[in-house]
Design a protein that fits this description.
Blueprint (H helix, E strand, L loop, with lengths): L1 H8 L6 H12 L2 H12 L11 H8 L3 H13 L10 H11 L4 H6 L10 H8 L3 H13 L4
Length: 145
């Protein structure tokens, strides 16, 4: 009996959907909330969006520009990066949330060069050795899912 009572007093775990939706409702106007809901309902298990902005716009009969701006807002919600299409896009959202300098955010465009071509990465991203070390430090803090 003691175990059952303790079990019952634990707070219910909020799902990712509920968490994102409650934040979206606080951030967005009513017309945008239905777009956010469709975006959130079409995230895969890793938090990536499975529908194109065009598909969502067509299904809801709203402008694609509205879908794009709502998706940008959803990417800033907690956890940051949800509704991205790629790991790089999710990482950029997470870095912006951490207020990482733009130069390091832009360096993500060359991420596929790492780790094998670190020197080429530094040259293309225009990072000196100290900036490169800072980039790697930040990168280790990011979550690809």
């Amino acid at each position: 009996a003691e175990y059952e009572e303790r079990e019952a007093s634990l707070p219910a775990k909020t799902s990712l959907r509920e968490l994102l939706l409650s934040q979206a409702k606080a951030e967005l106007k009513e017309d945008a909330v239905k777009v956010a809901e469709m975006i959130i309902d079409n995230l895969d298990s890793r938090g990536f969006l499975t529908l194109s902005e065009k598909e969502i716009a067509e299904r809801l009969s709203v402008p694609e520009s509205l879908v794009r701006s709502v998706r940008e807002t959803v990417k800033t919600l907690d956890p940051p990066g949800c509704a991205s299409y790629t790991v790089v896009e999710a990482f950029k959202a997470q870095m912006r949330e951490l207020n990482v300098p733009d130069k390091l955010v832009k360096a993500l465009d060359y991420l596929e060069l790492l780790p094998e071509q670190a020197q080429t990465f530094k040259e293309r991203a225009n990072l000196d050795e100290e900036e490169f070390r800072e980039f790697l430090k930040v990168l280790r803090r990011l979550d690809p899912h």
